[in-house]
From TrEMBL:
Coiled coil: none annotated. It comes from the Eukaryota. Belongs to the histone H2A family. Keywords: Acetylation, Chromosome, DNA-binding, Isopeptide bond, Methylation, Nucleosome core, Nucleus, Phosphoprotein, Ubl conjugation. InterPro entries: H2A/H2B/H3, Histone-fold, Histone_H2A, Histone_H2A_C. Pfam families: Histone, Histone_H2A_C. It is found in: Chromosome; Nucleus. Core component of nucleosome. Nucleosomes wrap and compact DNA into chromatin, limiting DNA accessibility to the cellular machineries which require DNA as a template. Histones thereby play a central role in transcription regulation, DNA repair, DNA replication and chromosomal stability. DNA accessibility is regulated via a complex set of post-translational modifications of histones, also called histone code, and nucleosome remodeling. One of its GO terms (cellular component) is nucleus. The keyword Transcription regulation does not apply. This is Histone H2A.
Amino acid sequence: MRQSERLPRNALKHISNKRIHNAHGFRRNTSIRMNLFQADLQFPVGRVHHLLCKGNYMEWIGAGARIYLAAVLEYLTAEVLELAGNAARDNKKMRIILRHLQLAIRNDEELNKLLGGVTIAQGGVLPNIQAVLLPKKTESHHHKVQCK
């Protein structure tokens, strides 16, 4: 059954003639063009779709999969860059370097869990001093005795 036989006539106005290739190179008509404009993403949805097809994950890639994946990648990138920008500002720097990315990811609990197995080259380590190695505070510094 063709697509025009399944849909009512007024629904055909909203479908574009954009052709999408599946993993085997076959073409099919979709109604993705409207969704792309409504998504308002900065990440390239077409490139994400191309990489999904090239990766041989599945024979067919769902229509919304590329939009959803591009949105997730854009959100994660914005989150990491915001935290790295804060780390750069704390160090009084104008440019984000790998050290700032390392500090941002390792100080955030969720990002550290997501990127736990990732090694960032030139990222350094987190500053950490164990409590046993810190100097002990004495009582004489806290209590002042008045002498007359």
